[in-house]
Amino acid sequence: MNNSVTNTVRLxxxxxxxxxxxxxxxxxxxPLVVTGIAQGLFHDKANGSEIKADGxxxxxxxxGQSYNLPLxxxxxxxxxxxxxxxxxxxxxxxxxSVNTQYKLILSGATxxxxxxxxxxxxxxxxxxxxxxxxxVPGYAVKPSDVPADAVTSSGSGLxxxxxxxxxxxxxxxxxxxxGLSVSAVERLVKDHTEGRTLGFMGEPRVNVLExxxxxxxxxxxx
Amino acid sequence: MSPELAGFxxxxxxxxALALAYIPLGNYMAKVYSSxxxxxxxxxxxxxxxxNPDAEMTWPAYLRGVLAFxxxxxxxxxxxxxxxxxxxxxxxxxxxxxxQSFNTAVSFVTNTNWQSYYGEQTMGxxxxxAGLAVQNFVSAAVGIAVAVALVRGFARSRTGELGNFWSDLxxxxxxxxxxxAAIAAIVLVACGAIQNFSGIHEVGQFMGGSQQWNGGAVxxxxxxKEFGTNGGGYFNANSAHPFENPTPFTNLFEIFLILVIxxxxxxxxxxxxxxxxxxxxxxxxxxxxxxxxTVLMMWTEFxxxxxxxxxxxxxxxxxxxxxxxxxxxIFATSTTLTSTGAVDSFHSSFTGLGGGVAMLxxxxxxxxxxxxxxxxxxxxxxxxxxxxxxxxMVGRTPExxxxxxxxxxxxxxxxxxxxxxxxxxxxxAASMALPTPPHSMLNSGAHxxxxxxxxxxxxxxNNGSAFAGLNANTDWFNTMTGLxxxxxxxxxxVFVLALAGSLAEQTPVPVTAGTLRxxxxxxxxxxxxxxLIITGLTYFPALALGPLAEGLA
Lengths: 222, 553
Fold this sequence. Notes:
The structure holds two protein chains of two kinds.
Chain A: H1 2-41, H2 43-46, E1 50-53, E2 56-60, E3 94-95, E4 105-106, H3 117-134, E5 161-162, H4 164-178, H5 182-191, E6 193-194, E7 205-207, H6 208-221
Antiparallel strand pairs in A: 1-2, 3-4, 5-7, 6-7
Helix pairs in contact in A: 4-5
Chain B: H1 3-34, H2 40-49, H3 59-82, H4 98-109, H5 119-122, H6 125-155, H7 165-191, E1 200-204, E2 210-214, H8 218-227, H9 248-272, H10 276-303, H11 307-312, H12 324-337, H13 352-363, H14 374-394, E3 399-400, E4 403-404, H15 407-433, H16 445-460, H17 475-505, H18 521-552
Antiparallel strand pairs in B: 1-2, 3-4
GO molecular function (chain B): P-type potassium transmembrane transporter activity; potassium ion binding
Subunit structure (chain B): The system is composed of three essential subunits: KdpA, KdpB and KdpC.
Subcellular location (chain B): Cell membrane
């Protein structure tokens, strides 16, 4: 009995020492070396691909933002600022609840099921809003024109992109609200449309933040 | 180009890349586990452990090494989380509560990486890099070590010796996982994944104001998270988060990382048993199932059945624009047919059938191609069962790779395949029967049941993906999924190592005209059939209540 206890303790000791040595290799040296190389070779990307407009950091090209008007009194959700291109819904984004000294955004999806009544309502409401917001005099949006990404929340809630179809659908509205010609805004969208990588990877997309920065430039030049 | 065609081409590109890596990586791994030489740094490590790397171990000794190392891992990771609040480098994150610490410690040590916490608001730098990421490496190395021990059981005869656990652990980590992950991490950073220690900082926004963001060693953790089939995300959104998986290319690259070791291990197996054709037969079985599931998943997701998805005009709920439906579907089956559980899109919002395919992938026992190591040993157990069934048909004592499959071997194999279904079904039934656990369900009806079934399927099979609607951060789910993960990892390992020991002792029987040729397509067909029938019979009633009911409604 005594013998087996000693053996177990010895074995656990060996396990613990193995863990500590391997922690040194994989938990200290490995991340530090990778960080060193990453910071040296890809400094901007390793730090979040931040982009600037007018000399100020306005976010990351990889992280979606909201383009809303300030919250009015008595309002719970702000209205979108229709001057700017709008990204996808993000109903799955959470708010910080554990480490409350920070105001962190919690990435995430709605996780609502394909037959969920809540999701059906979210999709329906989003479609109605997209149709209403984007129908301007001389350009009526049909509900069937609205692409799927415009009415669904992404996996991260931070999707930086929209489909070219959703960007095209917003062109008339954005042109009208900013006093620009439709063709100028159309060109802007076309210039910011990224095709599939090597022609087959992923889906074509438009980065909303980059598009809005270019739009801001265009408005300023007007 | 249509999205369907693009999805198909991505699948082809992935298969091409895996095929290119198969022979070099498989041969290399065989060399790693057969070589007599130790690197200098490895000698230092053995000295620190106090182990003789050349001492051969019998199966009980090998198992004791596995258990001692894993127990130390659980304990260390538990304490690290409990003490987070007072440790330096924690960015002000507080200590994690006991139930969640237990759950998370077990989860990462068992290669499950089930997460009942939100990464970005719970874990600081120290726990992430020195705790969680370390287990991403070593739990994968333990899995491969056990698989290699089983392969040695087939390859060796008239001995009880299965190799040395410490040597297999250290070599797997140092010679395979660390170099592979380092290269992969740099590739990910080059594409936009972040890698810094800047902590939480303010970033200005387009409309004015600012947001607070987590920095962190994300790329280095992401690389081993996929390469070691772990799956625990730095951020809550896992590989859907643009900082973990920034581009369509990184998405395919991460799928490649998930699959490359499990597939290539069949080559390692073939080389080590001295017949690479045996490895091809196992590979063919894995590929058949993986490809079938992936095509089925793509079909159902593109068809987007389900009222909400029909209303949206596409299955884009929970999916990222840059990946789209095709690439997300490949990721979903690859992560659930291995023990990974990372997600680039949220399975709970897939079509009813798509969610069912993901769940069935785990229920197969994650053997096509399965986790690092655990996939190979799981598949070899199924091969033992398949030759036994074939033996019954012709009335001949079954044998596999020259080893007789007798009563003892069959009992161990049967115990192996019974343990996970028993865990899944008992824990699910208990959760549904008790009054409070069902309160954790987000959706109601068939989908709500699927959430619970998915949770225990994921935990018992050491997958870690979730129908994330379920609120799993309750004492009940933290404790019960923790137990399911522990039992689902280590009981099968006991049976695998016992089987390895019993095989290694045998004298090989010569191949005769009556021997079932296990390197032929006929056997691959038999094996695929055995896997599908056994899993189907085991889980059909539970699947009928959940995903099937939802998919057919």
